[in-house]
Each structure stands twice: as structure tokens, then as C-alpha cells.
Amino acid sequence: xxxxxxxxxxxxxxxxxxxxxxxxxxxxxxxxxxxxxxxxxxxxxxxxxxxxxxxxxxxxxxxxxxxxxxxxxxxxxxxxxxxxxxxxxxxxxxxxxxxxxxxxxxxxxxxxxxxxxxxxxxxxxxxxxxxxxxxxxxxxxxxxxxxxxxxxxxxxxxxxxxxxxxxxxxxxxxxxxxxxxxxxxxxxxxxxxxxxxxxxxxxxxxxxxxxxxxxxxxxxxxxxxxxxxxxxxxxxxxxxxxxxxxxxxxxxxxxxxxxxxxxxxxxxxxxxxxxxxxxxxxxxxxxxxxxxxxxxxxxxxxxxxxxxxxxxxxxxxxxxxxxxxx
Length: 326
Hints:
Elements: H1 9-16, E1 29-34, H2 51-63, E2 67-72, E3 84-89, E4 97-102, H3 111-116, E5 121-122, E6 127-131, H4 138-154, E7 159-162, E8 174-177, E9 181-183, H5 188-199, E10 208-211, H6 216-229, E11 237-245, E12 248-255, H7 260-263, H8 267-271, E13 274-279, E14 283-299, E15 316-325
């Protein structure tokens, strides 16, 4: 997707081969506000809302370290009913918490403040967010909207376009919340595959930017395990230990089937599986794998990383070196 005479950061990033691993912003809570008008370049911050309510929501979101995103359904049809808002929170047990409400007056958004302070209902369907914030970065619109269209045709009840999620050069970006999983470098075809696989409990390393409850080196370690042993569910792996050393990080990842043991017939020898067998009529094996990953960080040369201006900056890349038994 190249346009002669105009710089597009996503085109440049693909030409350079920029790594997407370990680039998911850290966070475990999201505030979604359906806004059907034009989105300002700075999203929620730029909305002309009642000042007191806006300040309350902003302060509560900041205290909860929640990302505030404006959302809308894809397409030009007129939505039915009042706009919605949501507070979605990641839960390491998988029982993700959700609050949903509606608003018609600016003051109605004050409900978000209370929602941020209470647990919310467990479960609920995941939300698939596609960054299509063209005023923030052109690539988000050029690459994001075709992805939003393709996903909306397949899963209209789950998919929303949203404002800036970070990583413009990795457009099209898709975030599944409250799972807290970032995907990048997507097009219409790959996005449908990635989301369907995600919903079926098969997260693959390809297109994965990272899990938002983990810090970048930990995201890189989990991505390396997925790349080595194949797809797994959102909670099939956990980071058990992270040790900083002079050269990087030593990170231990633990998992159960459908993790490394199920994906590799030689896993016993390679990663040191500890198994306990309980024999009744049949043998049932509870497999626990421990995988140690070494992660190193390096800086790239100065490059233009967004479409918004000529300024250049350096990015940090996280490399996971060979996995060894725990």
C-alpha cells in the first residue's frame, strides 16, 4: 500500500522491517465512549464536553490508569438508541469485568467514575477495537478502515472503530479488550484470521504486539514461546519470574496444554516438563512446562515513526534469544 509523493509511516516501517514485538502499551483498564461526531486529533481530550464532567472522567481514568478511547461502529448507517459507554477491566483469572451504560447528556458520563471504582460484571463478550483515527495519523485511517469493514461484516456485534491506541507505524492495529491483546501489521484478510483465531483461543505470534498486563520484555518472552511452540489461549502462559541483568532480562514463562507440551512432541526433552500422572481407568497427565527466555533490548537508528511530522526518533526493539529448559 504505497502512495507516490507522500510519506506513510506504516509503509516505511514495513520497508525497514520494524519489529512489532513488545510494543503493546501497558494497562489493564479501558474506558470506551461512543462518540458519533468527528473525532479530534487528540481524541477524548479534544472533545467539547461539559468541563466539570470531563474533568471528573479524566481524573478517575488517570487514577485507575485506564486508557480512554472514543469508539463508533463502522459505516455510515445511523445507529439506533443513545450512544454507549463502557469500562472494561482485565482480570488475570480470565473473568474479565465489564460495565456498560448509555449517555445522552454530557453529565451522564459521570457514571464512568463510579464504574471505574467497582468490580463490574464478570464475563461478557470481548470487544474488538480497530484504530481508525485518521486525524491522529493518516495510516490509522488508510489501513484501519478496510480492516474495520472486514471485521464488522464478520462480527458486527463485537467490532468498534476507535481513536489512537499507539503504534501508528504498525497500522492496521487491532486491540481485543478486556483481554488486553494488541495485534499489528494487519490487513483485511489477516485481521479476520487473527480475530477468529483469538476468539477460538488460539493466539499466534504472527501479528502479536503483546499482552498489555505485561511489560515489553515479558511480552517479547511470551511471543517467543508462542512462536516456538505454536498458538495458545490468552491464559495458557504466565510470566513466573523476571530477573534483570546487565545485558537484559531472564524471564521464566510457565504454561499448560494447549501450550508447549501439546505443540511439540519433543517438549519433554527440550523444556523440562514436570508431569504428574493419576491412574484410574485411564492415565491423566497434568503437564507444567517451564521455559526460560533471554531478552535483550537494542535501539534502532533515528527514523520517522509517524505520519504527523518530519521529526525522527529511535525505537527500542526486544529480541528473545534461544529458549532453554527451566
